Amino acid sequence: MKYAIIADLHGNRPAIERLEQDLARRKPDALICLGDVVGKGPNNDYAFDWAKRNCDLILQGNWEKGISARIYKHDTFYHEQLGQKRMEEMASWPLEHRLRLSGKNVRLIHGRPLFHTLHTLNTDEKVWAEYFLPDYDVLIYADVHRQGLRTLAHRLLVNTGSVGNSLGVTHIQYLILKGSADRNSAPLDFTMVNLPYDNQATVEEVKKHPDLHNSEAFIRELETGVYARQVGNKNS
Q1: What's the chain's average pLDDT?
Q2: What φ, ψ does residue 163 adopt, rounded to 5°?
Q3: Are 217 and 209 in contact (CB under 8 A)?
Q4: Where are the alpha helices (DSSP H) in 130-231?
């Protein structure tokens, strides 16, 4: 069984279109999105509709929670672009999903809002212990926009990276997870995909929407891979 696991599309249409081309080439058996389909970027209605059309499962991220509940006053752009029906549907997306693959229990989450705060791969191992309960061997999450894999005590911690707003490396980042569908121990393969795309096309699209909050910071992130948003909006 081969899964493509994506996250943090963030309304970035050029990145999503390039991702779609790569998925067509790799031909996964199923496509799972770990959330933050929307927010930050300029094409949130497109991103939502694409995810609904293509994903076998979509989890709720912190941006879906914040926008659907109208928590933040600066999110008016997203409310108007998405509309009430899409926001209601986002609010119904689950927070997590469980897989049994190659004899391993795999937990899939976005991060926040299930996490109490933002956790990077380098967060102290003691903090991670509760998220492997009651019996998980592998935890796959998104949220921090930085791809990687970390070994813990007899467990694996994996971050998908971000499709539309990656940090560190300004490519599309996502994960291919491949394993056996039976319940016996078998190889479990992780392929970290780094896919170049036309970042500048996204920058030009952002510039068409002067009412997009924190647009200048988003442009800097697209161009540099360095986090640039102002403190204050806990979606981040």
Answers
A1: 95
A2: -75, -50
A3: no
A4: 199-207, 215-224
Beta bridge partners of 149: 158
Q: What is the dihedral of CA 93, 171, 17, 82, to 10 degrees?
A: 40
Q: How large is the average pLDDT for residues 120-126?
A: 96
Beta bridge partners of 3: 30, 177
DSSP code string of 5-27? EE---TT-HHHHHHHHHHHHHH-
Amino acid at 128: W
Name every residue whose Cβ is closer than 8 Å to that of residue 164 and which is 6 or more positions away in sequence: 8, 9, 10, 11, 12, 15, 16, 40, 41, 47, 172, 202
How confident is residue 235, by pLDDT bands cut at 50, 70 and 90?
low
Residue 167: phi, psi to the nearest 5? -110, 150
**For residues 78 and 11, what is the distance between their CA atoms, to the nearest angstrom?**
10
C-alpha 23, offset from chain centre: 16
**CATH fold of 2-224, please?**
Purple Acid Phosphatase; chain A, domain 2 (3.60.21)
pLDDT tens sequence across 151-201:
999 999 999 999 999 999 999 999 999 999 877 889 999 999 999 999 999
Which DSSP letter does residue 104 get?
E
Residues contacting 86, CB < 8 A, separation 6+ = 45, 48
What digits encode the pLDDT tens for the residues 51-77? 999 999 999 999 999 999 999 999 999
